[in-house]
């Protein structure tokens, strides 16, 4: 009996062993062809995804694919191996590249196999290459419907290649991803070639709003789209665009009537020597390019400048204009006085950026700043006028260049000194190096002079002195000349803080006394305006944090009330504004809400629109583009929480949305000069 039991157990054991052997034989063999296995090993057989790196012993749980990413590096989602040799990385990269090429080749072969040869088409070969026509011209149909697909979204190439119902995607899983990459590369190649042929500037692709819409519209049309003709773009579509821009202009005019606007006039000299005055209108909605005037014979005549002021004000509406902003030229100052007599409610405001630039000019006329500026110019010009020496310098400065100082842009003198100070040690290494001293430059008189300047301790001490003076002023210049927010509510406080920063930088008052005299002279006589005082009082970001100091500043309040009396002629409205101000000052009603308090400094920015209109050969050719500019937080704050004080709210938005500078778009004028310069682009 025991024998039969043992015999039965033995048979069961034999059967179990045979089943185990069969399972092992039938199980799929592990694919160890991937070269990453040469540098990896599996941690245990129960978890096939856990793999150990043989270089750093790190265990990853993503399989051999993730292990390859660990060895190659560069994947932000996978930690790189710090000990892997470079030749291993290159071998694995070459393996992946070869694998991708093979996959791409298979996709192309699959597309060729799926081509249908329709011999029954009556329209000929040309008709078979075109996609089906849409039902209605002008309406953009979905790509799937235009290609006759149902249920599955297809790309534009599906209009050319029809897939059979029984076809499979193959081993690649999703070949559509790689196919789209190839198609995009082809499209960009053709587009770039057209850009090069047409001579278009590279930055034209940065107009992403209109350019992206154009690309999307072409993609929705599908293959076979007929390109626009010369007469289409210069005729009906130009008129259509003019009508569209006119609608936007009307929206701006509504804003002018509601909150007022600023007239900005900026002079620049064209390459042909003509003096051009560009006229813009700025409001809370953005800046509108109104017109360009050839002022070659009248730019220095105050009477003719006043006539230009007057004609522009009358065309916009005197009741809508708050200020006219120009530079500090004498003819503009006199024209501003004439305008104040004819339009007592309109301010003439000097360009803050131009005024600060003149402050820099006055400072660099004083010693020791004038001497170090001249020395910096001599060193800079000596280096850049000699290409071999310039290349030698860039090897020491790691390809960093020195800022070119401009004779009329005095702020660039500070930037030049700042860049030279950043490269102080590298410049010293250059002028003491054997490469320089043994060269012809080291034996020249100007070369020895430049070396003496760079190696002089007194030169660098004076540079530090200039940087301490100019640094705070450059911050103010960036504020008023920037595109982030209208600075009317910040300029008054910014100038005070700049002077405080300069004072803190020096222990000896004699080092900055003369500089303060220069700043005060320009500020008191030219730059300061009651608008700046009103902007500070109505700026919640600064008012509540400095309330005690602001409430005790009598000149500040004198400017604030003067601004109310000038901009608001109705006495009843003036009284309402003064009554409602106490609600704002005490943070009552909506001003006292936790959100209003929290968002005094954190109100999210929006977008503003810059619309440009050009006049070409007595025909109006309108062009516009959206400029990404952060809308000021103070204006948005008043729009959100100023409803408890409606009259004060309207006055605050009118003041805080004003610009302080007429040079905000100056950087674009050199581009505008080249518009329609070629004969083939002339509009007759």
Automatic annotation (TrEMBL):
Residues 114-126 have a biased composition (Acidic residues). InterPro entries: DUF659 (IPR007021), HATC_C_dom (IPR008906), RNaseH-like_sf (IPR012337). GO terms for molecular function: protein dimerization activity. Coiled coil: none annotated. The keyword Glycosyltransferase does not apply. Residues 228-377 form the DUF659 domain. SUPFAM superfamilies: Ribonuclease H-like. Residues 113-178 are annotated as: Disordered. Residues 144-154 have a biased composition (Low complexity). It comes from the Eukaryota. The chain crosses the membrane at residues 6-27. Keywords: Membrane, Transmembrane, Transmembrane helix. Residues 634-674 form the HAT C-terminal dimerisation domain. The keyword Transmembrane helix applies. PANTHER family: OS05G0256350 PROTEIN (PTHR32166:SF74), OSJNBA0013A04.12 PROTEIN (PTHR32166). This is BED-type domain-containing protein.
